[in-house]
Design goal:
Keywords: NADP, Oxidoreductase. It holds the Pfam family adh_short_C2. This is L-xylulose reductase. This protein is of the alpha/beta class and 365 residues long. It is built from 12 helices and 12 strands. The protein has helices at residues 18-29, 41-50, 64-74, 94-103, 113-124, 164-175, 187-196, 210-218, 247-275, 297-317, 335-341, 346-357, and strands at residues 9-13, 33-38, 55-58, 111-112, 135-138, 155-159, 179-184, 201-204, 225-228, 279-284, 322-329, 332-333. The strands form 3 sheets. A 7-stranded parallel β-sheet has the order 5-11-10-9-6-7-8, with helices on both faces. A 3-stranded parallel β-sheet has the order 1-2-3, covered by helices on one side. Helix 2 (41-50) links the parallel strand 2 and strand 3 (55-58). Helix 4 packs parallel to helix 12 (346-357), helix 5 packs across helix 6 and helix 8 runs parallel beside helix 9 (247-275).
């Protein structure tokens, strides 16, 4: 086909060689003004020699600030004018809005923490011995029968285990006979958990700290069951458009929601392989990894990464009798959910939820 990009300005990252180089040449042949961005100046110089009318930019894409400054110069000093996600507080009937939200759930109810824990317990157990690499949505459309599980002699690690969904999973695992370690960042939350569930083992560590996390997990010893449940998310910051999302939110979300699960799973799976014991790993993700939500791009990206990590882990660890699955809840009645629903800012929060989900079809996937 013949393309005409005359008057258009194009930016191609990784444009000095390979696929990027071909794209650069095709865009220039179609009349575009092209900027090729790459890390290595020598490769860019070679590109310039072969395609004289290309603009070349050398920058390390791993350097967030330097990359932003470079691209901002390309798009012109005025940049792009954006607005923060609009916060409209004009719903006349909050109960009606809330009821409308419930109608979108197949069973007409908000998912309970116990629903999520039931799914986790099932996938950890031998009852799911033939299931690996799956992503199981828990959206009030699934009902799990009460089953009896026996994890006696098993050691389990639950990250984000001090409250919310993690706390319920910790309790269910202990009730099923497992020796459980609850890992969380905040010592006060862990101490409160200990007062309620005395026979839980506590580990306080910042999951964003790669090395400290590895040491803490290695010190546990053999782990048979792993639940990567820790999460970075807060409704107070869930109103940034993609354009306005600050680097620190993306960084923290990737560090806690994705990299920590990757890190801990490496340590645990390596030990499982060394012992030839097999095991089960559950990654607690979110429907935000499967469907886009407005205002929380940093969260969606991290959970989508977790979902693909599950599939790759299942593929590579399956031959070692290690099963890896994902549980993906939607709105869950956690302590945070109850706090939000009783908040004086409920009108604003419900408006945000409606904006994020108005184009989604809710129900089974």
């Amino acid at each position: 086909m013949a393309y005409n990009f005359t008057g258009k300005r194009a930016l191609v990252t990784g444009g000095s060689r390979g696929i990027g180089k071909v794209i650069v040449k095709d865009l220039i042949d179609a009349g575009a003004e092209v900027f090729a961005l790459a890390k290595t100046q020598a490769n860019l110089d070679k590109l310039k020699y072969e395609i004289p009318n290309v603009n070349i930019i050398a920058v390390d894409l791993a350097d967030w600030d330097a990359t932003r400054k470079t691209v901002e110069i390309i798009v012109s000093p005025t940049g792009v004018r954006t607005e923060l996600f609009e916060k409209v507080m004009n719903s006349p009937d909050l109960k009606k809005v809330y009821d409308e939200m419930l109608v979108r759930h197949p069973l007409g109810k908000i998912t309970e923490m116990k629903d999520v824990s039931n799914a986790v317990m099932f996938l950890l157990s031998d009852k799911a011995s033939m299931i690996t690499g799956t992503i199981l949505p828990v959206d009030s459309g699934y009902m799990f029968m009460k089953m009896a599980y026996n994890f006696t002699g098993k050691r389990a690690l639950v990250t984000g285990g001090s409250r919310g969904i993690g706390k319920v999973i910790v309790k269910d695992l202990i009730d099923a006979g497992a020796e459980v370690y609850a890992l969380a960042k905040t010592q006060t939350n862990l101490d409160k958990l200990k007062s309620e569930i005395p026979n839980v083992n506590l580990i306080a560590v910042d999951l964003a700290d790669w090395d400290a996390t590895r040491i803490a997990v290695e010190n546990i010893g053999d782990v048979d069951l792993l639940v990567n449940n820790a999460v970075f998310f807060d409704e107070k910051i869930a109103d940034y458009s993609f354009i306005e999302t600050p680097y620190e939110f993306l960084e923290q979300s990737i560090n806690v929601n994705l990299k920590s699960a990757f890190n801990i799973s490496q340590v645990v799976a390596r030990n499982m392989m060394k012992r030839s014991s097999g095991g089960a790993i559950i990654n607690v993700s979110s429907l935000a990894g499967l469907r886009p939500f407005k205002g929380v791009s940093f969260y969606c990206v991290s959970k989508a990464g977790m979902d693909m990590m599950t599939k790759v882990m299942a593929l590579e660890l399956g031959p070692h009798n290690i099963r890896v699955n994902t549980v993906s809840p939607t709105n869950v009645r956690t302590e945070r959910f109850e706090k939000v629903m009783n908040s004086p800012d409920l009108k604003k929060i419900v408006k945000q939820i409606r904006q994020r989900t108005k184009k989604m079809k809710h129900g089974h996937f």
